[in-house]
Amino acid sequence: MTYWIGLAAIVIAVGLNLGDASVFLNLHSFYLVVGGTLVAILLLTPALAMRDLWSLMKQVIVDAKRISPQSLSSLIKNPKAPFSDSYGLVAQANDLWELGTVPIEFERLLIHRAEGILARNSAAIACLRNLGKYPPALGMIGTVMGMIKLFGNLGISHGQGQIGVQLALAMTATLYGLVLSNGVVLPLVDRLEANEQ
Questions:
Q1: Per-residue model confidence as pLDDT tens for the chain (197 residues)
Q2: Nearest to 58 by CA among 70, 68, 47, 66
């Protein structure tokens, strides 16, 4: 919940400082940056990492708590303890206990499962962190495309009067890329990492 409150605060702060908002509304830049980022996610993120990432983001949305090392120790000592987790550790502990697994083997298997879950979660978060570099790059591509169009219109008499407007539109792609990366993706990565500790 706190992530969403922070995100709303950023949107409000930026919105209050926009002035003439029409200058910032450029759908071509928006499609290039947001659409390009979505394409990068689909092309570069393995399906298993996407599934794990989606699961982690759902936990952040509802502020779900994961089992701490202390809770894992308690679970190992008492598999019937009233814990709830979204990783299935409690269910696996109950299954192992009901199968009559030897306590030392029970502990080893449960810790191995927990370490595997943490490794998968770390890999999913790393994919999202790597994704954070694409929105600014896509924004720069949009800016360069806008600048090329601007320079192409300089020789035309009606194009010279629009230099400021065209330059502002060209820069919106960079703005969108920076906001998406530094205002959404990277804070989400930090939140996911904090939730995993």
A1: 566 677 777 777 766 666 666 667 788 888 999 999 999 988 988 888 888 888 888 777 766 556 566 666 776 676 666 666 666 677 777 777 778 777 788 778 878 887 888 888 888 889 889 999 999 999 999 899 888 888 877 776 665 667 777 787 788 899 999 989 998 899 888 888 887 76
A2: 66
Pair of tokens at residue 96: 């192992």
Q: Minimal CA–CA distance to 52: which of 120, 128, 151?
A: 120
pTM, to two decimals:
0.71
Q: How far apart are CA 125 and CA 53, in angstroms?
A: 7
Cα–Cα distance for residue pair 54/59, rounded to 1 Å: 9
Single-letter residue type at 35: G
Is the dihedral angle over the CA atoms 148, 152, 157, 158 positive or is it negative?
negative
Q: Write the single-letter amino acid at 115.
A: E
Q: Which residue shows structure tokens 């010279």?
A: 160
